[in-house]
Amino acid sequence: MGHLPQLLIILIGIIVAAKLAGALSVRFGQPAVFGEIAIGLILGPTVLNVLDWNLFSQAGPHGSGAIDTLINAAQQSGSLEEPANSLFFQGLVRDLAEIGVILLMFVAGMETDLEGMKKVGKTALWAAAGGILLPFLGGTLASVYYGFPLYWEAIFVGTILTATSVSISAQTLIELKVLRSREGTTILGAAVIDDVLGIILLGVITALSAVGAAEEAERAGVGTVLGILFWISLYFVGFWFIGRRYLERWCERISKFPASQALLAFVLVVAFSYALAAEIVAHLAAITGSYMAGVLFAQTRFKEEIDDKINPLTYSLFVPIFFVSIGLQANGRELGGEIGFLVTIVLLAIFTKIVGCFLGARVNGFDNIQSLRVGIGMVSRGEVGLIVAGVGLGRGIISQEMFSVMVIMVLVTTMITPIMLRYVFPRVEEVPGEVFESIGSQRMRREKDREK
Fold it and tell me: Rounded to an integer, what distance in angstroms lies between the CA atom of residue 217 and that of residue 295?
């Protein structure tokens, strides 16, 4: 069988499996992302290892002599430890997943409400700060205790533990009809602040890790660190200025361009350009740039139009590939010697986030139960934790075994957060005068309004 049929089978399988698993997960009261990652684990080397099946491991014509030549040469030289086609498809799926994560973070930026963040106040800021500091210290120290190097694997584990998933907490709060309660507003505001600070921390850590190994990092002088921070600052200031000054004007012109989907094409070019510039100019993760691009586009009057165009592309193809690929890359069979560390990390991920956010909310006027609700609402790492872990694996900062541990941690925290939230929040059958809408419901309402 040729490579194109094989590729189409893989894409069909991933998309169908992701959507069915996501729907099944929602049916059992869990976020769709949980089912999508879980099906990836089942399809991956943890259980079935489908990409190593004979259907995909036997060589066939690529339709490109160059690709055939490269793979055959590598196979003959013995440099491939896996079947040629299996390695080829694994790399292709990972590349498509990288595009998916860039688009996912762009959408996250589009959904960031800067004005809403300002209104939440200092309580959300302190809760977010506590929810970053304690998990970071806990993850770093635990990793060092279990023998992992401080530079940079242990520090990066701490960085992964700082993440919080806005979407999972928000959806649960909507279902419980407490989204607009004092605690619900604080959870969302703190989660958004947590994401922003977490992305900045991710960018700094990945940039510093580029200095080199532990010995080189220890020899790196203040000048080197200041130089890295200078380029990071230059990137943020320069590209923020460009976006705020020119994006809306460019969108206005492009929207009148006589070509199909010209605005969407322009948005993709800008998102990818910001991601590329983040990598090249500031040595930041590409997702940092795409997230900034999303935030900037959200400030334009074209936000709703862009949102309606980018979401179908993102969530129909690339994001399912990303979530399933996380499971495909994780190998639960490699955790035999890391069970103790895995249990420690999962417990730390839950309790350091709860305690850190609890303290931040408690010192700002919340009572004990309100503070506990805020802490529990911040536990889920969701797609944000996966994104950060994927960056670490892709850059060689964390090992494959550590990545597998992080995926299990994300799965557990994603699964347990809705359960704990349902326990600490009272059931509300109806809240007079309040309308709780999901993002999909809001989009459907806008479409109906336009039809009228």
Answer: 33
